Structure formats: C-alpha cells, structure tokens
Amino acid sequence: MSSTLAAAATAAIPSIPRDDDGPVFRAPWEAHAFAMVLTLHDRGVFTWPEWASALADEIKRAQAAGDPDTGETYYLHWLATLEKLVASKGVASTETLNRYRDAWDHAADRTPHGKPIELTPEDFG
To answer: Where is the Nitrile hydratase beta subunit-like N-terminal domain positioned along the sequence (predicted)?
Structure first.
C-alpha cells in the first residue's frame, strides 16, 4: 500500500482510526479492505468526497440500527460501504460479491487456524 495514498485517505476521511504513524488496524482483513478502497480510488472508481459521504451514510444507518459506535465496528462499516459502492458503480454485482463472500466463509471454515485461507473451485459449490 502506498504511503502517499494512505496519507491522502487519512487526510480526506478524518474518521479513520490512526496513530502518529498513520492508519491502525485491529485485524489483517481491515488493512486489506483499506487497501482495496485506496486502489479503487486511485483507479478513479470514486472520489474521496463520494467515499466519505457513503461511509458516513453507512455509519449513520448502523447507529440508527443500534450500533454502539465504540470504534470496534468501524471497518465493518468500511467494508459494507465498499461493497455497496462497488455494486452501484458496476465494478461487481451484488450477486458476485455474495458469491465470493460465501466462498470465503466456506474456505475459512475448512482452513486450520493459523494457515492462510485459499479459495478453491470447491468453495464456490
């Protein structure tokens, strides 16, 4: 992940959890979701104001549904926003996103703890 892109994102989206060195993540998947957003922004799929507005809407929706807003769910909102924008921009359909999510769940269930998760054709079955 480019430090220039990460710096631009943290400047444009003040809610990103960070410390003095930049964004902080509680789990590897959060860093991956962050990197996917940086990449899609860099490729022109959406602007930072568009992303920030969509993320704010997702967080408000979650809070209205009872999310306690402790910061622990921030990247869940980030991921939900990413999925919605990717679908609305036509990058991938909701069906494709759901298919891959289900495949990853299947792959994670069959993968021993501590081993890398790898998708196989059987995970899509």
So the answer is: 17-103
> In which residue are the tokens 């990717």 written?
86
Lowest-confidence region among 12-26, 36-50, 55-69: 12-26
pTM (two decimals): 0.76
User: How does residue 91 score in pLDDT terms, banded at 50, 70 and 90?
Assistant: very high
Q: Which two tokens mark 110?
A: 């069959």
Residue spans per domain, the chain: 3-92
Is residue 42 within 8 Å of 5, Cβ to Cβ? yes
pLDDT at 1: 54
Q: Which helix (H) or strand (E) holds 19?
A: strand 18-19
Contacts made by residues 8-12, CB under 8 angstroms, sequence distance 24+: 8/48, 9/34, 9/37, 9/38, 9/41, 9/48, 12/48, 12/49, 12/51, 12/52
